[in-house]
Design goal:
260 residues, alpha/beta, Rossmann fold, seven-stranded mixed sheet, 6 helices, 7 strands, DUF4159, DUF4159 domain-containing protein
């Protein structure tokens, strides 16, 4: 009984906290389509749509492929266009592992990967996408529970590929910006950012899956939230130091994926 009551109080407090934070970081139901969305460009930012694991309790309140969508994607693309010479489209594309459209986008971003639930067929298709030269960036999942959910699906297609930490000297951290010294990028749930971690995800982890040649093909951002830093880059309440690193990290990953 105490467990049920405690869980109920936790849920109520979490919902109240979310409402308070949303007053400071208000989300709009309407994000206008960029006027040049149909422009033909050399790079398109693709976001992965996936099926969610059927979680319960506090875990059921989070974990959607649509988190931060579409504002984070479009503001990140503004930064890519401003800070690099990449001819990038200003609007995101949505892909999944059901159709073959994913093969048209060599760089794919997946948010809240600690809540995805890939059937065997989709995990194998993800492997084929990677084996054909694709690159996957994962973001915004935290702690041991979400890590276990993430790896359960990933291992269906990549059981033969170990997940390794990325060394500071790796080219992915230096291809455009030098990211030798990195900090944990928090989501807005951490406002006013007296702490930067969620659950038991105390330390940020930059990890990867590599191919036979040692090339990073899956870049795993665990215990951090680049997407919120992109989404709230225009808010005076979100610290610039986190946004700056998130933009630099995303740009490095895109350029690495296109050149290695």
């Amino acid at each position: 009984m105490l467990t049920v009551v405690g869980l109920g109080l936790l849920l109520v407090c979490s919902l109240m906290g979310q409402r308070w934070i949303r007053d400071i970081f208000p989300e709009s139901d309407y994000i206008p389509t960029p006027p040049d969305a149909n422009e033909k460009t050399e790079f398109y930012f693709a976001r992965l749509r996936y099926r969610n694991v059927q979680a319960s309790g506090m875990w059921a309140m989070r974990g959607q492929w649509t988190v931060d969508y579409p504002k984070a994607d479009r503001q990140f693309m503004q930064g890519v266009r401003r800070l690099s010479r990449i001819h990038a489209n200003s609007m995101e594309r949505i892909v999944d592992l059901v159709s073959d459209d994913i093969y048209n986008y060599p760089f794919v971003y997946v948010v809240e990967a600690g809540h995805w639930d890939l059937p065997d067929s989709q995990a194998k298709k993800l492997r084929e996408f990677i084996d054909r030269g694709g690159f996957l960036m994962t973001d915004d999942f935290h702690g041991t529970y979400e890590w276990d959910v993430f790896t359960t699906s990933l291992n269906k297609g990549f059981g033969d590929r170990p997940i390794v930490d990325i060394e500071n000297s790796d080219p992915i951290f230096h291809v455009l910006y030098d990211l030798q010294d990195r900090i944990q990028v928090p989501g807005i749930v951490n406002y006013p950012f007296t702490k930067t971690y969620e659950y038991d995800g105390y330390e940020p982890k930059w990890r990867a899956v590599r191919d036979d040649k040692g090339r990073i093909v899956i870049a795993i951002c665990h215990n951090m939230d680049q997407g919120d830093a992109w989404e709230w880059a225009d808010s005076p309440h979100y610290p610039e130091k986190y946004t700056s690193q998130a933009y630099r990290t995303g740009l490095n990953y895109i350029i690495y994926s296109m050149t290695h």
